[in-house]
Amino acid sequence: MKGSCLCQGVVFEITGAITNLLYCHCRMCRKSHGSAFRARGKVKTKEFHWRRGQELLRFYESSPGEHRGFCSRCGSNILTKFDQKPEELGLALGVLDDDPGLRPTCHVFVGSKAAWHEIADGLIQYEGFPPG
């Protein structure tokens, strides 16, 4: 599976599965993505490979130990690195060029969702993180 940023400067490949697909409505994801929510999943660090443009990445520590990576040229949000879980990355699904074959299963942090957005699908909604 391949992915890239808006300007095509950053290109990556994933050799494994993307798991835990969901929609996050927290304030940070909304601000970071300029949208009502962020569609995201998880990928194993060892299965994520840069093909081009890693030097264009910049990171912002949005929460202690959580570093959001974005393209410094076009601003595309790409991934999140976790100090406490270096074996795992959070992946912004919007930068995928291929279909991951799965769909998000729930909405999280709906307690802080944008007031102007109405969740209209039948997916499970959680006030914070899902249990477990």
TrEMBL record:
Lineage of origin: Bacteria, Pseudomonadati, Pseudomonadota, Betaproteobacteria, Burkholderiales
Organism of derivation: Alcaligenes aquatilis
Cross-referenced Gene3D superfamilies: glutathione-dependent formaldehyde- activating enzyme (gfa)
Record-given protein name: GFA family protein
Keywords: Lyase, Metal-binding, Zinc
Domain CENP-V/GFA intervals: 1-106
Family: Belongs to the Gfa family.
Keyword Zinc (UniProt): yes
Superkingdom per UniProt: Bacteria
Transmembrane regions: none
